[in-house]
Amino acid sequence: MGWLADETGLDKCAANFVPLTPLSHLRRAARVYPNHEALVYGDIRLTYRQYHDRISRVASALTDMGLQSGDVVATLLPNIPAQAEAHFAIPATGAILNTINIRLDVDTVAYIFDHGGAKFVLADTAFLPLAEAAIAAMEGQGPVIIEVADPQAGHPASGRHMEYEDILAKGDPAFDWVMPQDEWESIALNYTSGTTGRPKGVVYHHRGAYLQTMGMVISWQMVLHPRYLAIVPLFHCNGWCHTWMMPVIGGTVVCLRDVTPKAIYHAVSVEKVTHFGGAPIVLNMIVNAPDEDRLPFDHRVSVLTAGAPPAPAILKKIETCGFDVMHVYGLTETYGHVTECYWNEVEWGTLPEDDKIAIKARQGVASPMMDDVTVMDENMGQIPMDGATQGEIMLRGNAVMKGYLKNPQATAEAFAGGYFHSGDIAVQHPDTYFLISDRAKDIIISGGENISSVEVEGTIMHHDAVSLCAVVAKPDDKWGEVPCAFVELKEGATATEDEIIKFVRSHLAGFKTPKQVVFMELPKTATGKIQKFELREMAKKL
Length: 542
Prior knowledge:
Blueprint: H1 23-32, E1 37-41, E2 44-47, H2 48-64, E3 72-76, H3 81-89, E4 96-99, H4 106-116, E5 118-124, H5 128-137, E6 144-148, E7 162-163, H6 164-169, E8 186-191, E9 201-205, H7 206-219, E10 227-230, H8 237-240, H9 242-245, E11 252-255, H10 261-269, E12 275-278, H11 280-287, E13 301-305, H12 312-319, E14 323-331, E15 336-340, H13 345-348, H14 353-360, E16 365-366, E17 370-376, E18 390-397, E19 403-404, H15 408-414, E20 420-428, E21 434-439, E22 444-446, E23 449-451, H16 453-460, E24 466-476, E25 480-489, H17 497-505, E26 516-519, H18 532-541
Parallel strand pairs: 1-11, 3-4, 3-5, 5-6, 6-7, 10-11, 10-12, 12-13, 13-14, 25-26
Antiparallel strand pairs: 1-2, 8-9, 9-19, 14-15, 15-16, 17-18, 18-20, 20-21, 22-23, 24-25
EC number: 6.2.1.44
Enzyme class: ligase
Domain AMP-dependent synthetase/ligase: 26-405
C-alpha cells in the first residue's frame, strides 16, 4: 500500500483548504492593484480600491434591508457599473444573483421572478415599466424594486422607488463579506432563452465560476492589465464570467450600455480596449461599419466570438480591420464558453488563407477547466473523427451547471450517462477539433437528405450584398421540407431572390439550395443571436 496508506494528520483545514470563489479575485485585487483602474463607464472611473468599497457598501446595505444567505436578488440592467458591481455584491451577502434578460416580455419576467423567488430586483430606470408590470402580473408577492438611475445615458431617477446610489451611501465599506463555506454553494441563477416553452433556471456554483475564470485566462492567453469591453450582456451567462475574471489579472472593465459600431470603435481607439467577446453579429457590425463611425487605433484587439458559428467570410474580413478572432463555444449550462479554437501555427501557418479561415470557424477543443468535450452518437459512443460523421456535442467538467432549478427530471435527462447533452450537432476532425453542423432542431431534412442550415448560411454570407442571413425549414408537400433563406442586406446594397439562389447553387448541391429567399431585418436576441424560432413560424405561413 505504501506510505499513503497512513495519512494521519493530513486532513483538510482552514490553512490548506479554502472554498473556491470568484469573490476572492476582487478581495485580492483591492490589495494588489488598489490604484489601478477597475471599471470605466463614460465619466465614471473607479480604481480597485473604490470598486471594492462600493461593492462592500451595496452588500452591507442589502444585508441591513433583510437580505439573507440563500436569498435571490434579480437584476434588470444593461451593462452599466451597477450590473458589474452586483456580480460581487450579491454573492458577498451569501445571496444568489439572478440577472434577467432586459428584452424579455412581461409574462416571462414575472415567471422568472416567481420561479426564482427574487427578494429584490435592481432595475434600470429605462426598464422600470417592465419590472413594475411583471410584479403586477404575479399572483404572490414580487421582489422589492431598487431603481438604478443612469443620468449620463438620459435616465434620471423616477422617484418612484428607493435608488441604488442612495442605499449604497448608507452601506459600510468595511462590511465583512460572506464567503462560501462550501464551494458547491450557489452563486448565480440564469434562465435559458425559453424558445420552446418556459425557460429553465440554470444554477451555477462558486467552484465552477472560479475555475471558469482561471481557465479563461489561459485560453485567451492573457497578461496583466487588459482593458475589456463589456459587449456580451452580463445577463447572458454572467457575461461569460468575464467580469468575475478581470480582477485576477488587474484588468479594466469598460461598460457598454448600447452596442453600436461607433461605440465599439470609440472604446478601442479612445479607451484602448484590448479584449472583448461578442456574437458573430458584433463582428458583422464592425466589418460593415460606415467610415464615419470608424476611429483609428494602433494595436491588435483580441476577440472571442460565440453564440452561432461565424461565417468564414466575416472572419476573413475582420482580421484586416485589426481584430484577432478566436472562436469559442458554450451554453448557459456551461458558464459561457468552454471550448477554444486554439491556433496551431506549426501545422496551419503555411496553409492557404481560405483554409486557415475554415479552421478558425471550428468550435475547437476543450478549455482547461473542462475534463472532456467530444461528439457522440445516439448510444453515447465516440463518433468517427472523419470530419463528416455527425453526432451530438457532449461535455463534462468543472464548468457545467449544478442543474436546473426545481426541475430534477430535466437535470437527470441533461446529465444522462455522465455527460451534459448539448443538443448541438457537430462533426469531429482527426485532430479532435469539432465543428457545429447545426442545432438538432435546425437540421433540415429534405427528401430524406440532411441539410445543415449553417452550411447554407455560410455560403450566402459570401455574397457581397449580404449582411446577415438565416436558413430554416419550410414545409413542402413533395420533399417534406426545403431550405428557406431570410436575408438582411447591407445598407445601400441590392440583390434579388433569383440572384441569391443562383449564387448558392453555384457553390452547393441543388437540394441544399434555398427554394425561397425573403429579404428583411432579421429578429435577434439581446446577445445578437438570430431568433430562428420566429423565422420558422414565418416560413410555415409562406
